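User: quick one - fold this with molybdenum atom bound?
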Amino acid sequence: MRSALEEKDGIFQAVCPLDCPDQCGLLLHKEQGKITKIAGDPSHPVTKGNICNKVRHMGARIYDEQRLTVPLKRVGPKGSGQFTEISWEEAIDTIATRWKTLIAKHGPQSILPYSFYGNMGILSAEGMDRRFFHTLGATQLEQTICSVAGGVGYTYTMGGGFGIDPEETIHSKLFIFWGINAVSTNMHQVALAQKARKNGAKIIVIDVHKNRTGVLADWFIPIRPGTDSALALGMMNVLFQEKLVDEAFLAKYTTGAPLLREHVAQYDHNTVATITGIPADDILKLARLYGTTSPAFIRIGNGPQHHDNGGMTIRTIACLPALTGQWLYEGGGAIKGNSGYLAHNKAAVQRPDLRTETHGQRVNMNQLGSALLQTENKISSLFVYNSNPAVVAPEANKVQQGLEREDLFTVVHDLFLTETARYADLVLPATSSFENLDFYTSYWHHFVQLQEPVIEPYGQSKSNPAVFRLLAQAMGFTEDALYESDEAMIAQALHHPENPALAPVTLEALQEQAFVKAQKPRLFPGKLLTPSGKIELYSETMKQDGYPPLPTYIPLKEENGKHELLFIPGPNHNYLNSTFNNNATHQTLEKEAVVYLNKTDAAKKNIVDGEMIRIWNERGECYLKASVGEHVLPGVAVTQGLYREAPGTKQLVNALTPDRLADMGGGATFFSGRVSIDKKTY
Ligand SMILES: Nc1nc2c(c(=O)[nH]1)N[C@H]1C(S)=C(S)[C@@H](COP(=O)(O)OP(=O)(O)OC[C@H]3O[C@@H](n4cnc5c(=O)[nH]c(N)nc54)[C@H](O)[C@@H]3O)O[C@H]1N2
Ligand SMILES: Nc1nc2c(c(=O)[nH]1)N[C@H]1C(S)=C(S)[C@@H](COP(=O)(O)OP(=O)(O)OC[C@H]3O[C@@H](n4cnc5c(=O)[nH]c(N)nc54)[C@H](O)[C@@H]3O)O[C@H]1N2
Ligand code: SF4
Ligand SMILES: [Mo]
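Assistant: Sure. Structure tokens for the protein plus molybdenum atom:
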């Protein structure tokens, strides 16, 4: 059979490569070797042919005339965007020569890779790159920017990235979308909820912003940022008090229920109302509804964990389903993330055994600015791929200052001349995911998909694994592992006896069937991966790690109290983090960047709807248009989207965000910063 690449025309199955839980099956329509249409694949068991608008328009990005086609060398000052074309040979040779000199002078820890999930393909995001940087002995990047705090918190309670199979939620009678803007960020979970709604299910949304998801709720509950654990504890108190708990489930499958019962008495609904801003009666109503509806499902989002107390908040919310034994019902329980089910053999793919250095230097990716500005253990070279830190990392002004360093040798591998790439000494053109072989594991549904190349590499662009093989050669590395093929690496990744759920997923199966599902029995009855094998309402491990062993409300850090607003700059509907922010089609879809303010806060500063305002704190400033109303509570300012930082605009929201770390896992605290607002003055 001819491969998709060899066929000039036809319709080919593909997978969405973006960092989105839905991981949709796609159909690429190809004419004369070019993708002419991107549609959903109706045969995908979960995503069923529906895809979001941004990906329906992704063809415009693949063939955007701004796409990089050749390697570039900087000829103007850093940040100016002045480059000249060079050959791949010269580019790779320049990097290797420079790195050899740096390693000889300062050691391999002077080189820092910076990457995230711009492409979710396992080989593209955490494959040959890891093997290469392990062999090199570079500083290790802690990949903490997204969901780590909540991931660690959830794991304390539940033992790992295990929730329910989202396909089950068709049976749910109550949905709580808790700190997730699912209409924009997990649309197929919303589709499932809408189906269940036809059978009488109710949808509750708990959020700091009445956004697209809040608007569709049967009941929208606005909450003060960073107070969700107090709400969850208040609900638990009502459940215990009013005997709405499942005593048999608690006794059999949890630890510490009697301690928790006593502990939550302090979170009576009046106290919780004062903390959260939610009326006491609503807290009672919510707890009773949750306590009397089965199956009840909580979709735990990323919002509440991008805070100082994010880990503890998710750990706390994750305790709720156990109280009413929801895990036993089809469609009951929760999903924070489901990556546990599809865990592949990371050691085989990444080969940490290739690392022999002893410096042990690590950099938390949330603190890139500080890392680039540190004088001890200086970073002399930065290699960026799958990420756009100039826009996505907090304390953006510090990051920019770091990127401006004349003595920093920066290489960026991307499809576009991103804001970060403008500071690079060398820019390398990357292929899109449809140009490569890779495999994809969702962190929401339970299917794995293979992507085979459908179109030829764009211009001279190369995939991530291809670039690292070239670099390995130029560095003179002789390890066989650095030259293995993509096929071989996929087979190694999928051979993972420690995760029997992955047994049906082999390279051959993926080549035969478009989607292969992991085989994991329901969580309960069963043994969790917590130390006790149970849901840990009381966690001895947390105690040993220096946290309260029972779920607890811990307020956000005070910061500078003189700034009156908590600033919540989340993602938007038509971009994927900063991806698409430079593509004209998506810019048109997303329109203008605004900041949502409560009318009382706006009135205090004489700010009217539609007016450009200045948002500022000690870290930086931003100019955005005010959207004044009641979409947010007083004391809260919300923006959506990581807009392109173009000359003449100042809408880089991360100029304002803190690079403090969350309570767990070194996570980001994008949403715990404070700002002041003013009328714009010229
Ligand atoms: N369209 C689109 N989809 C995306 C992305 C994108 O950029 N655009 N990004 C992808 C990525 S990488 C991720 S991690 C996910 C993130 O997607 P989500 O899990 O939806 O996370 P966020 O959008 O960061 O925040 C979710 C919600 O939390 C709210 N929130 C903030 N603080 C609090 C709080 O203290 N309490 C409560 N209850 N709510 C709070 C915000 O207002 C927001 O509505 O989406 C993925 N999907
Ligand atoms: N203010 C604020 N900041 C945030 C967030 C927020 O909610 N608010 N969310 C945070 C979260 S949850 C996340 S996950 C991060 C995401 O931050 P990033 O991971 O940096 O995500 P993107 O902005 O999508 O940038 C991905 C880049 O990878 C490139 N790319 C795509 N495919 C490939 C490939 O195959 N090879 C190479 N070399 N490059 C490729 C894309 O062109 C794009 O420039 O942002 C974080 N930043
Ligand atoms: S971004 Fe999400 S919803 Fe859109 S096509 Fe990709 S996986 Fe599906
Ligand atoms: Mo993320």
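One thing worth noting: The longest strand covers residues 620-629.
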